[in-house]
Amino acid sequence: MENPARRPIVAGNWKMNGSRPLVDLMQNQLEHADLEHLDVVICPPLPYLGLFKSSVTLGAQNMSHFESGAHTGEVSGSILKEFGCSYVIVGHSERRADNHESNANVALKVAAALNMKLTPILCVGESGSVRDSGKLFTFMAGQIDAVIKQVGIAQFSNIVLAYEPIWAIGTGKTASPAQAQEVHQFLRGHLAKQDPNIAANIKIVYGGSVKGSNAKELFSQKDVDGGLIGGASLDPKDFLSICLAAKQ
């Protein structure tokens, strides 16, 4: 990677999957792999966070924008920190759809994560209908601008941006390397309108049916700095091959 600030990062989002044996397998795989010059993050379901050793960098799949209180079923940033989390996924498309998270709500979560010194992995992306309508870039600008309005452009130096084309999640479809690069370039350019230095240094990762077989070509694109990996992160060997593909 030419820009040292954009050290590649690969985050595994287990979603609502996993088991104690998978925790052990993943730890063993990561502990014996050469992952220098690469950041690897595992984001398991909340109950498994406490089973990982401190050598594994952990992230959560979601957090509340509230610090504490009567919010049954939610989890705060302070609790995530207590269990060793360094990252938290915010605004994943499944959360936006299943839990009706608006751009404004996602922005509040980003602010709460930053306040707790957690690195948000901020997800943005479009459905197939949005892409087909020709309003892709307007739609994604709205997702980004809500966060800029809430936390300011300077805070993007503490954020990882994740592009996830919704039409490619869990479908087996993958954005072509050219499609991924086009959107990543737009996102970097949109941020550059506010602060060129922030835009040049922010990590933007791709998430959408990444596998060991297509990771290297995706990660070789100029503005792609790694991946947010779903299904393939449940297979330790495939996940490791994706991680190794991110090492440039």
In short:
The chain has helices at 20-31, 77-82, 93-98, 103-115, 128-133, 136-151, 177-192, 196-201, 215-219, 236-246; strands spanning 9-13, 39-43, 57-60, 85-90, 119-124, 160-163, 203-206, 226-229. It has 248 residues and is α/β, with parallel strands linked by helices.
Percent in strands: 15-25%
The overall strand count is 8
The CATH homologous superfamily? Aldolase class I
| Distance linking N and C termini | 6 Å
CATH architecture: Alpha-Beta Barrel
Query: What structural category characterises the helix and strand content?
Result: alpha/beta
Radius of gyration: 17 Å
CA-based shape? globular
- Total count of domains: 1
CATH class: Alpha Beta
SS element count, helices: 10
Identify low-pLDDT runs.
none
Task: Could you tell me the CATH topology label.
Answer: TIM Barrel
Write down the secondary-structure element order.
EHEEHEHHEHHEHHEHEH
On the 0-100 scale, what is the average pLDDT?
95
Query: What composes the largest sheet?
Result: 8 strands, parallel
**Widest sheet: strand ordering:** 7-6-5-4-3-2-1-8
Helical fraction equals 25-40%
